[in-house]
Write a structure and sequence with these properties.
The structure is a single chain. By secondary structure, the protein is an alpha/beta fold. It has 2 domains: about 200 residues, NAD(P)-binding Rossmann-like Domain (Rossmann fold); about 170 residues, NAD(P)-binding Rossmann-like Domain (Rossmann fold). It is built from 19 helices and 14 strands. The strands form 3 sheets. The chain has a 6-stranded parallel beta sheet with strand order 3-2-1-4-5-6, sandwiched between helices. It has a 6-stranded parallel beta sheet with strand order 11-10-9-12-13-14. It has a two-stranded parallel sheet with strand order 7-8. The chain is globular. Bound molecules: nicotinamide-adenine-dinucleotide. Nicotinamide-adenine-dinucleotide binds next to helix 1 and helix 5.
Length: about 450
Amino acid sequence: MHLAMIGVGYVGLVSGACFAEAGQTVICMDVDPQKIEGLRRGEIPIYEPGLEDFVRRNVAAGRLSFTTDLNDAVDRSQVIFICVGTPSREDGSADLHYVDEVARGIGRTMDAYKVIVNKSTVPVGTARRVRRLVSKELARRGLDLEFDVVSNPEFLREGSALHDFMQPDRTVVGVESAKARQLMAELYRYWTEKKFPLYFMDVASAEMTKYAANAFLATKITFMNEIANLCALSGANIDQVRVGIGSDSRIGDRFLFPGLGYGGSCFPKDVKALIYMGKTMGYNFNILEATNLVNQAQRHRFIFTIGSFFDHQLDGKTLALWGLAFKPNTDDIREAPALTVMERLLDLGADLRVYDPVAMLEVQKHYENYPYPERIVYAPTPEAALEGADALVINTEWDVFRQFDVSRLKNLLKAPVVFDGRNIYDPAQMKQAGIHYFYIGKPIY
Ligand SMILES: NC(=O)c1ccc[n+]([C@@H]2O[C@H](COP(=O)([O-])OP(=O)(O)OC[C@H]3O[C@@H](n4cnc5c(N)ncnc54)[C@H](O)[C@@H]3O)[C@@H](O)[C@H]2O)c1
């Protein structure tokens, strides 16, 4: 089958490479010429474990190619995936202007039956909106071509995207016609033959499923953070509570680790978009309003703990920061809690020595206009970040930090103080190592 992926970001590039791996012929189109030229030279624009091998292998096999020409991509493909961003607008709604642009572009160029698939995360009703935009462009050209619009939301996680795409818990496809259903079933046969579940449903339900999944997970994380905060106040041990509830199969033991809260390009915007969607229908999604607020507050609680330790006087203090990406195994810093921590600590007067295994370049770009560049030192190693630091602050639970020999911390830091926003160490071991150790849910009494 010939496929086009429109938008070559995390979702478009990973999906394109994976469909090619499954034997399809895929053309990836993006409006960013630098990205496409780079990909043609074999340069992968994002950090995603295993992606470079997938891309190289499938380009060499002639199954994967790149273009900036939408007409060419549409022309060559039976199934066209829309994979562009759907960021938050000021009011929390999903900004659909990239999706609209692609839909109009497809309508301006298609000249035979196509299946147009929304893989971007989009509110209920977007498939209908895409249909309207394509039809309008076709009408302008005096054409009345048959086409289908399908919803096929993506559930991959950055950092394990290839695994998630190749071995999904499920694939969800919302369809309106038997023809589109048949084509999508054929496309996903590689997976259904391997017994990975494929659920067909109506389009609105597929659109809602994506938001429901992300909002549920964001709420689960947030609930656990609230329990951790209560543990700190009550003297209960969050680790023991986590094991106690996680062993209940109705709850499950994943997504129960307390921390700095969720970030990234999906959970924050999808929670807000679902709240907004409710509002447009006269419905107040109260749980999600609270999820959003508590998640923001969680970062500030952590920063307050750091500030309190230094009597809110951080002038002349140097803090080491480990972890800048919003989670491990990615260089994505969109809505990363670490950025809030960095900015607030700088505001409070601290100098920072920061380290992340892969997100350093992204952070440097993000702060290139920061007025006091000398106050942020980009350290080449975790050890180098600790030099002369009055405390270590951990924002992201990279394995390299988990595996760090904590008995070395006391000698490497100027003062043996660690604020751990991801609870990666054993408090007993830290005590033994002579470290003043703060973590999420640490009993206050
Ligand atoms: N990143 C994730 O982990 C993830 C997971 C599941 C779903 N999603 C959803 O998938 C969608 C894409 O997310 P992403 O993280 O891949 O975004 P991204 O920002 O990484 O990539 C989007 C790409 O689309 C391109 N683009 C914009 N307008 C275009 C146009 N008119 N024509 C062609 N290309 C265009 C941009 O240049 C960019 O390369 C979003 O709706 C997101 O919510 C993301």
